[in-house]
Amino acid sequence: MSLLDDVRETMRRDQVFDFVSEQRYPFQGRRPVRPEEVDISHGPILYLENISVSFDGFKALNDLTLYINSGELRCIIGPNGAGKTTMMDVITGKTRPDEGTAYFGQTMDLTRMTEYEIATAGIGRKFQKPTIFPQHTVFQNLELAMRTDKNVWPSLFATLTCEQETRIEEVQNIIGLSDHTHVEAESLSHGQKQWLEIGMLLMQDPLLLLVDEPVAGMTHQEMDKTAELLNRLAGKHSVVVVEHDMDFVRSIANTVTVLHEGHVLAEGDMDEMQSHPRVREVYLGE
Ligand code: ADP
Ligand code: MG
């Protein structure tokens, strides 16, 4: 596969990387918001208040209120159908709430922004399905994902600046793939592919990272490394992780939010959640 094919593929993959398909989301005269403009001076980076989303009368989210602090690593757990994915869809602009407000920092109304604008403003989402370019190396994958001012073209056809190269090396280091720079993505282990994908999101310098079930299918060793990685990202980034694996959640989370029937059932540390009668009832099946 040539680099040009990859560019075409990148341009097609607007479902995943919305920021590459500016054309599909005309600005209507609006200037894209940059991450440095997000106002986190009050602490929280994300405000979801009284959000409801209905599908044919069924409330997937029902009066959901949730705040994420800047730099926080938060785990969201809850049984299947609790509304976890729908919540992420609301945050990323894929689904519009019927009621409620969603703010990124103090001033950005997510319900009035396009998916592209939200991604550009600094919200990155990792899906479960792999979105890496298998026949390209770790380095090239990170290069393809690099944030550019206007669109994806300049970064592919211009030579990398020193600063850009340093950034790629930095991210390789963060995701633990420095020794795999020239390895084709398809030869990476399942866990390494997931880390590469997180690295590709990091190339966009997101303020808030949304990660859906990152350790599904991973070995224990890979899970430990993923926990380390996500903990390392917290602080510089805010991270929201949706995950089922309880041991994993215990190993990374300070605060856990339990969703049930589209609503926050309980919030606290893992010990509090595991001894919470209602949580045990609906989630742990007691
Ligand atoms: P979770 O990710 O916690 O498993 P989801 O957010 O995927 O839950 O789904 C919440 C509920 O909303 C489920 O009952 C699901 O069937 C329903 N739902 C989600 N998306 C749609 C949709 N596009 N159309 C109809 N129902 C949906
Ligand atoms: Mg889901």
Explain what this protein looks like in three dimensions.
The chain has a domain at 3-34 and 72-79 and 123-282: Rossmann fold (3-Layer(aba) Sandwich). The model is unreliable at 12-27 (pLDDT under 50). By secondary structure, the chain is an alpha/beta fold. Helices cover 33% and strands 22% of the residues. The strands form two sheets. It has a six-stranded mixed β-sheet, with helices on both faces. The chain has helices spanning 3-12, 84-91, 115-121, 138-144, 153-157, 162-174, 190-202, 220-233, 246-252, 270-274, 277-282, and strands at residues 44-55, 58-69, 73-77, 99-104, 108-109, 123-126, 208-212, 238-242, 255-260, 263-268. A hairpin with a 2-residue loop joins strand 1 (44-55) and strand 2 (58-69). It is built from eleven helices and ten strands. The chain binds adenosine-5'-diphosphate (ADP) and magnesium ion (MG). Residues 55, 60, 78, 80-86 line the site of adenosine-5'-diphosphate (ADP).
The gross shape turns out to be globular
Order of helices and strands: HEEEHEEHEHHHHEHEHEEHH
Low-pLDDT stretches: 12-27
Q: How many β-strands, per DSSP?
A: 10
Instruction: Tell me the name of the CATH class of the domain at 3-34 and 72-79 and 123-282.
Output: Alpha Beta
Main β sheet profile: 6 strands, mixed
CATH topology of the domain at 3-34 and 72-79 and 123-282: Rossmann fold
The pLDDT mean sits at 86
CATH superfamily of the domain at 3-34 and 72-79 and 123-282: P-loop containing nucleotide triphosphate hydrolases
CATH architecture of the domain at 3-34 and 72-79 and 123-282: 3-Layer(aba) Sandwich
Considering DSSP H and I runs of 4 or more, what fraction of the residues is helical?
A: 25-40%
Give the distance, in angstroms, between the N- and C-terminal Cα atoms. Answer: 52 Å
Widest sheet, order of strands: 6-7-8-3-9-10
Question: Count of helical segments?
Answer: 11
Bound molecules: adenosine-5'-diphosphate, magnesium ion
